[in-house]
Design goal:
Cytochrome Bc1 Complex, Chain A, domain 1, 5-stranded mixed beta sheet, globular, metal ion binding, Pept_M16_N, Peptidase_M16_C, Metalloenz_LuxS/M16, zinc
């Protein structure tokens, strides 16, 4: 019991200590193409071993959507040296924790251990890469797991399908048009050979980034990495998605229905540049101005002052190929969805025509300074950022200097970004309605 309490204390400390100074790191490649990033920090006796694979929903066959997310689950089934059902037991026996997640652009696995178990984490991730057991038993088991997840998180969740409705209307060519959870019919129809081929194509060292961060002895960890990952064969080069969408030139009007809601919603979505562009960062600032906190423009106007909305928000969804800028509102007191659209548009027009005040701009800069510090405040956060900046942005040094981009953004750029991207003829307007409103 004492050992467990000590381990829990370590992990909590690892997730809460603040590190505002520069993040030092070392990066190199193995001969098989595996990109390695090491970050040494002895603040707490913990270590994270993580692997990011450059495979997400956008890399799937349009007739087999959901594969990347499915593999997030499937690759915990077991390996040639880790028996089925033993993965989580091994992690917990060393006082650790682990998880994985999938997006449109990548899949990410990690283990957090006391630092004396770093070799266990490296061994397990090398096993996942080299020796996964992919058989019909595992596929059938995880098929049921994914179906249950979809029922709980999407199908039976209020507003659970709204983002999927946005994506399929915003993208007609690019594979961002489907969600990572994918189609259950596609997964049911897939053969074992298709799953094996997907693994062989994407889960290879030259399509991955390994990050080891925390209380580590760098020379010892380098040797472990070479021993465990060096012998893994390089895979064939992955051909990347390169599909361009036609510009949106007139408002797309769409309606969707949800049996799990009582209150309708209106959502506006604008297609925006890729995450590594300067304009994507400017649009981050626009969303903060409009809806970050109770003093933000949309919240103060629609929720506090006019009491027209139960909830309102604006957020910038940054991804590797395209982004989306979204506004979302729930009406209050019989307010029509058309009136919500009008009020939101009025606030956007103000941003397009007037510079924000110096005081508002100073507050905005402080918000982003705080976010930057918090993003590097944990070992887990640092590891995820190192992998993301290397793989999706192509510049790992952004972990230390991306804040300089935000600092250099001007009030004029905020106005110009709103003018360029947030216009009614460049958007989707989606009314998301209760099922019983269907005629």
């Amino acid at each position: 019991m004492r050992k467990n309490l000590f381990t829990i204390a370590l992990l909590l400390f690892a997730f809460t200590y603040v590190q505002a100074q520069e993040v030092a790191f070392e990066e190199y490649k193995l001969d098989n193409g595996l990109h390695v990033i090491l970050h040494q920090d002895d603040t707490a006796p913990v270590v994270i071993t993580s692997v990011m694979y450059q495979v997400g929903a956008k890399d799937e066959n349009p007739e087999r959507t959901g594969f990347a997310h499915f593999f997030e689950h499937l690759l915990f089934e077991g390996t040639e040296n880790i028996e089925r059902g033993e993965w989580f037991k091994i992690v917990s026996s060393y006082g650790g924790s682990n998880n994985a997640n999938t997006s449109d652009d990548r899949t990410y696995y990690y283990e957090l251990f006391p630092s004396n178990a770093v070799e266990v984490g490296l061994w397990m991730e090398s096993e996942r890469m080299l020796h996964p057991i992919i058989n019909q038993v595992g596929v059938d088991t995880q098929n049921e797991v994914v179906k249950e997840e979809k029922r709980l998180r999407v199908d039976n969740q209020p507003y659970g399908n709204i983002f999927s409705e946005v994506k399929k209307n915003m993208f007609k060519k690019h594979p961002y048009r489907w969600s990572p959870i994918g189609s259950m019919e596609h997964l049911d129809a897939a053969t074992l050979d298709e799953f094996l081929a997907f693994n062989e194509k994407f889960y290879v060292p030259n399509n991955a980034t390994l990050v080891v961060a925390g209380d580590i002895n760098v020379p010892e960890v380098k040797k472990m990495i070479q021993d465990y990952f060096g012998p893994i064969p390089r895979g064939a080069e992955v051909e990347r998605v390169n599909i361009k969408e036609d510009p949106i030139t007139e408002q797309i009007n769409a309606v969707a229905y949800d049996p799990n809601i009582q209150i309708p919603a209106v959502l506006h979505a604008y297609r925006t540049p890729a995450m590594n562009t300067r304009e994507a960062r400017v649009l981050d600032m626009v969303s903060t101005i409009l809806s970050d906190g109770k003093s933000s423009r949309l919240y103060k106007k629609l929720v506090d002052d006019k009491k027209m909305a139960l909830q309102v928000s604006a957020f910038n969804v940054s991804q590797q190929d395209y982004g989306m800028y979204l506004t979302f509102a729930l009406p209050l007191n019989n307010t029509s969805l058309e009136d919500l659209t009008k009020e939101i548009d009025e606030e956007i027009v103000k941003l397009q025509t007037e510079l924000i005040s110096e005081r508002e701009f100073e507050k905005l800069q402080n918000v982003f300074e705080n976010r930057f510090v918090n993003s590097n405040a944990t070992i887990a956060g640092i590891a995820g950022s190192l992998a993301t900046y290397q793989m999706l942005y192509g510049d790992i040094n952004l972990i230390n200097n991306e804040i300089d981009i935000y600092r250099s953004i001007t009030r004029e750029e905020i106005r110009e970004a709103a003018r360029k991207y947030l216009n009614p003829n460049q958007r989707l307007r989606l009314e998301y309605l209760p099922e019983n409103d269907k005629q």
